[in-house]
Amino acid sequence: MAFHSYISISELHPSFSHPKVFGVVIAKTDVRSFPNRKNPEIERFTFGFTIRDSPDFFINVSAWGNQAYITSLADNFRIGDCVTVENPLVSSKDPEKDKFCPATPSHYRLLVVEPHSQVLLCTDMDTVDGLLPLMHLPAKDSADFYSLGDIMANGQKLDGAVINILAAVKTISEAKQFTTSDGRRGQRMEVKLFDDSVSSFPLVCWDKESIQLLQTLVPREAVLFVADAKTSFDSFRGGMVATVNSRSVVTVNPDSREASLLFSYAKQMSESGALDHDEAADHPSVDSITDVYTVNQLKLKAKEQPDTFCGLTYSFISKLDLDSSVSRLIKTRCSKCKFQAAEDAQSCSNQLCPGREQPFSGAAAFDLLVDVSDHTGTLPACSLRGAAAEQTLGCSTDEFAGWSDDQRSALKWKFLLERCRLCLKICPSARTKSGIRTVILACSVADPGEVKQHMSAVLQQL
Ligand SMILES: [Zn+2]
């Protein structure tokens, strides 16, 4: 392909006839239809996308036509693909039409219409290699963003606001399909974000294109810069949510210092397992968990469905390493950002820590890995931490640190020999061999009558 015949987005002008531009697609909307004004029985179809060919320039393109033309055009490429746009109409921006599109530095917009214009996938590998790094440049100033803590602190003041957000991806739920009251089909997906100030914050997507983009991400291994996300107060949950809409541009793993610091933070939090233990927001109260499973039933259920779920099991703790050194059983974390720290740390080693300027304050907590078994199998390396561990063991970290080896051993055998009632949270995980991570939310020695009742129910199912 001869790219000297192409015009850069910065040089485009309405006086050009037959312009050709190329760029990487940084945003794209779903196909929509509208009744034709002159001929209401005929519907017109449209979708929009945004292409970027340099760090400083990107432009919105809208395509219009009949259903066959528009759907086949839209199916041909996705966000992240490189395309060439041939023979578009170059027109000045129109505030009415552009208010539903991403804000761009260009003064113009491109119109793609049948049969004059074409959008083709770019096949020149050198051009593609040159364009792909642009995918990692935010569509707004990379230093101009709200942290999740800023959003929470502002609360309802940000109801209806359009802001930029930088945060890491914690979980990605399945897209849910639905039909609206007027018969249109829709879908909704929720991503939970986190950063070092907030452990879980919802980002909602309604568009197939943005859902597809986010579904390709690996939770805990991606940082997002969402330019022009809409924030609103959700009265049903009683908290703030952010929404990706047709004006938003989502940049995955943005190329900025703040993003790379957040990426390191997310990686450390993920590897240490600290993300599995978030407070109330992420899992139901222990009392509401009533479904009883055998170990094998828990494993099967985790395979059948990818979402996190909770369940009750009457099982034995088959491995409980209370004889290890205290430093392996009790970990210190920064109270501001939960980053792991040495017991005698003078400062937090997380460069993004909101408390970096203040004297270090750390909190010690149990951090145990235990195996849970019954007659059907074993759940290895279940994590038992913090308050759940203190309640299970019946002692604080300070008390435990002062105990003799004999006292710890006695405590260990109390659990190893008894059947326990365990409330578990099962999270899918690509990192573990078994494909799941298990968090113990509560554990106590079970009442024998209760065990008998549940075991007979389980045996009847066999
Ligand atoms: Zn910290």
Question: Could you provide a short overview of the structure?
Answer:
InterPro entries: MEIOB, NA-bd_OB-fold, OB_MEIOB_N. By secondary structure, the protein is α+β, with helices and mostly antiparallel strands.
Give a written overview of the molecule.
The chain is of the alpha+beta class and 462 residues long. It folds into three domains: 3-135, Nucleic acid-binding proteins (OB fold (Dihydrolipoamide Acetyltransferase, E2P), Beta Barrel), CATH 2.40.50; 148-270, Nucleic acid-binding proteins (OB fold (Dihydrolipoamide Acetyltransferase, E2P), Beta Barrel), CATH 2.40.50; 273-280 and 290-461, OB fold (Dihydrolipoamide Acetyltransferase, E2P). Helices cover 23% and strands 35% of the residues. The protein has twelve helices and 22 strands. The strands form three sheets. Strands 1, 2, 3, 4, 5, 6, 7 and 8 form an eight-stranded mixed beta sheet that branches. It is elongated, with a radius of gyration of 27 Å. The termini are far apart. Bound molecules: zinc ion. Zinc ion is lined by residues 334, 336-337, 339, 348, 350, 353, 355. InterPro entries: MEIOB, NA-bd_OB-fold, OB_MEIOB_N.
Pick out its properties:
462 residues, alpha+beta, OB fold (Dihydrolipoamide Acetyltransferase, E2P), 3 domains, 35% strand, elongated, binds zinc ion
Secondary-structure blueprint of this entry?
Layout: E1 20-28, E2 32-35, E3 43-52, E4 58-65, H1 67-75, E5 82-86, E6 89-92, H2 95-98, E7 108-113, E8 118-121, H3 125-131, H4 148-154, E9 162-172, E10 176-179, E11 185-194, E12 201-205, H5 208-215, E13 223-234, E14 239-244, E15 249-252, H6 257-272, H7 295-304, E16 309-320, H8 326-329, E17 330-334, E18 340-341, E19 362-374, E20 377-385, H9 386-393, H10 397-401, H11 405-416, E21 419-428, E22 436-445, H12 448-461
Parallel strand pairs: 4-7, 12-14
Antiparallel strand pairs: 1-3, 1-5, 2-3, 3-4, 5-8, 6-7, 9-11, 9-13, 10-11, 11-12, 13-14, 13-15, 16-19, 16-21, 17-18, 17-19, 19-20, 21-22
Bound molecules: zinc ion.
